[in-house]
Each structure stands twice: as C-alpha cells, then as structure tokens.
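Batch manifest line 254
LIGAND: 2-phosphoglycolic acid
JOB: complex structure
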Amino acid sequence: MSKPIIIANWKMNLGPKESAALALAIKEKIKNKPDGEIVLCPSFSALSGVKEKISRSRLKLGAQDVFWQVAGSFTGEESSRSLLELGCEYAIIGHSERRQYLGESEIMINKKIAAALAHSLTPVVCVGETLLERQEGRAGYRILSQLEAALQGIEVVAGEELVVAYEPIWSIGTGLPVSAEQAEEIFGLIRQVLLDLYPLTIVNNHVRLIYGGSVNAANASDFKAVGLINGFLVGGASLKANEFSSLVNNFFKD
Ligand code: PGA
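JOB STATUS: finished
ARTIFACT:
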C-alpha cells in the first residue's frame, strides 16, 4: 500500500498571514516520521506565503480547487499550470461545499480531475452522501454514482496518483464521524468501483482512500481498524497547530 496521507483543508477560514503562521507552527510541531505525507491546502491567496514557510520541510502544498482549462477568459478561476508554479502538488476536487454552494456538477468535477492529472497535480476527489440519503439506505448508491461520474474516461497510469476522499456531508464539521462499520462498507464499495475501472496494481499502488468528516487527534486512531483507510482529509482540526500535529504524529508510524 502507498504511504498514508493526511490533508489539511483550511477552507476559507484563514487569511494569507494567518495561513503562513499556522503553516510555520505546524512545521515546528510535526515529528520527522518517514511513513506518511502531509499536505496543507490553504486558500488560493495564501498559497505562496504557505509555500515559503514549508520549504525545506516534509510538508506539501495543495489547492482547494482547480479549473479545467490552462488559460483563457475564465474570470476568477485558477489553472493547474498556475498552481503548479506556486508549488502545489495536490488539488482537492469536488468538495461537497463546492458542489452545494458553487453548483459544481459531476461533469465539471470530471473535467477538473482530467486537467489536474494532465498537469501533474494529484487530484483529491471528494465523494459523500447526505444524511437523508444515508437514512433512506441510498448512501452506497450515491457514492457509487458520484465516483463513476467523476472518474469517467479518466486514466490513471504508473507515475500518476489519485486520492479518493469519502466525506459524508452529515459528518463534515458536525463532530459526528462515521462509525468503523459504516466506513468499512463504503470504503469496500469505493475499492470495488476502482477495481472495475483500473488494474489491481494501479488501485493498490497509485490510489489512496482517505476519510474526511469530524476527524480529530482523539478519534483518528479509531480508523486504523478500517484496513482500507490510508489517511484523512481534515477540516476544523487542521486549524489548530497542536491538534493537527498530534493527529499526524499519532497516526503515522515511526
Ligand atoms: P471537518 O471537515 O474535518 O471540519 O469535518 C472536513 C472537510 O470538509 O474536508
């Protein structure tokens, strides 16, 4: 299995100066465990300031979104080329907040994944069901259809990486993470979808499955029991240097 990965999603919570200060504080508190990758995803305006603070460290940089065109008349958008130039290695794509507030569709998400891969950014593809979908027993179907739409026509070849983040919407920012059993079921399903699309060696070595939704330093180790989980996408708990660094330091092996 590939290295575990923990991704901090700071959303629109911090300005450039606050982001740079938090990056520095996290850098100082993270132990030098070789086992995993740590990615900080500040807002666009904070990317270069954060990059400067984490240079010469094991922390990596990611963006919270990416547009599918490389250049042109697309007011307000950021291209993979620009993100790469700023030092990004990852891009979160299809976060439920973008689907909900920005009207991001499956087609847009699919194009963004293709663009990211084409320009050497690793997509962190988010999928997740609503509370109603879970209550009505439609969680599995929802995840399956989101993932199939997101990855339609997307090749993942040796040398490329893909991260799939399962983030149930009812769990984001609510303090209610999924249970180990719920996670096990959905991650099994995600793996099945991936195996329908890609060869086993690609799925095993180039695709990481991570969980997001109310993960913190106290509950992260509960997910170790769920064999398929290879890391986390962390919102609220990544905004405090102490909390985030103990989450990382506890989760990664020496
Ligand atoms: P949370 O957010 O950790 O605050 O629940 C996760 C996310 O939205 O990526």
